[in-house]
Write a structure and sequence with these properties.
It is built from eleven helices and four strands; from the N terminus they run ααααααββαββαααα. By secondary structure, the protein is mainly α.
Amino acid sequence: MNNFIVRTITGVLFVAAVIVCFLRPMSMMFFFALVTGMSIWEFTGLVNQREHITVNRFICTAAGVFFFIAVAGFCGELTPSSVFIPYLLTVVYLFCAGLFTRNADPVNDWAYSMMSQMYIALPLSCLNILAFRYGADGVEYNFLLPLSIFVFLWMNDTGAYCTGSLLGRHKLFPRVSPGKSWEGSIGGAIIVVLVAVLMSWVDESHLLVSFGATETGLTLAQWIGLGLVVVVFGTLGDLVESLFKRTLGIKDSGNILPGHGGMLDRFDSSLMAIPASVIYIYTLTAV
């Protein structure tokens, strides 16, 4: 029971922090830059426990945080494209450093260094693409789309857990995550579709205009499509992180969030759902 209470309190505080951070662009940038840094630091610490692996944790973390801030500045039209030059130089440095460090396995060091950027920094940075969009007066900050990704993920997790606990019979991916079932996934998807209908109504009725949320322009069908994209790729993101932990032989990626594990445990689903949502939104725009 004590663990349940701790888990509940941590979950409520986490959800509140995510919602509040989206209300202002600077708070969103600061919060998710911090999330990016902590996630990469956690990831590199885990892979450094593998034999012959020596990844530069500080440089990988600093590079990921800089990339997030650079994407935010570029998407918000605060900085020119040249802001990415220091990041590119850092990538070059990480490769060239392998020539001089005499590490036992430089190829895997490079691979894990780049994975920290591709797996964590890039997906989280895509939040800025959803948040900063062109409007009638140029680039505008609108938190509704990026926040909806997390709302869908939370509702999918809740629906999948409740439905799977009651009706789960057929395993979804037993080799990686024995606890997930097809029934749970379907239940989570149904809940997300209902929430997508609600989000569409909130969007069209301008209920959050006073908080800075302008209309996204998505139809009801497009909102439902976005919800289902988040369900599919959020589940895949969860499975990818489960495979990562199973490969390393660990249960949780960390213990920074009492009752919830580490940062990767908390944001694993979003690392696939966010870039997939960007692709979906821009596909709609292009059609």
